[in-house]
Amino acid sequence: MVMALIEIKTRKKKKIRIALVEEEDYKQLTKKRFYFSWKLFKTQADIKVYKLQLINDDDILGVMALGNFVDESRIEINLLACSVENVGVKRCMKV
């Protein structure tokens, strides 16, 4: 399955990937850009933080924190955010 976003300016489809956030990624995940201090999740072992990026681009477009409750057969979205430049009518990308 290929996932893609549409770049609004060019109307071209751009392939994306979703991956676990790595330690160095937290430098990009600022409260100013993603509305929340994502570093708070680093200390919570039961929550994994994932990033959404264009293929071959290090910029993070979106981020989500997920809790996996295996014994209850469910996944919980703890927090979900787009980067500030991808919110509203002047956003850069769309689904």
Question: What are the SSEs and their pairings?
Answer:
Layout: E1 4-7, E2 12-20, H1 31-34, E3 47-54, E4 60-69, E5 74-82, E6 93-94
Describe the structure.
The chain is 4% helix and 44% strand. A hairpin with a 4-residue loop joins β1 (4-7) and β2. The chain has a six-stranded antiparallel β-sheet with strand order 5-4-3-2-1-6, with no helix packed on it. The model has no long low-confidence stretch (mean pLDDT 94). It is globular. With 95 residues, it is mainly beta.
Summarize this structure as a short list of keywords or feature phrases:
95 residues, mainly beta, 44% strand
Query: Helix and strand string, N-terminal first?
Result: EEHEEEE
Percent strand: 35-45%
* Sequence stretches where pLDDT stays below 50 over 5 or more residues: none
Radius of gyration: 14 Å
In percent, how helical is the residue content?
under 10%
Overall mean pLDDT score?
94
Short overview:
The chain has 95 residues and is mainly beta.
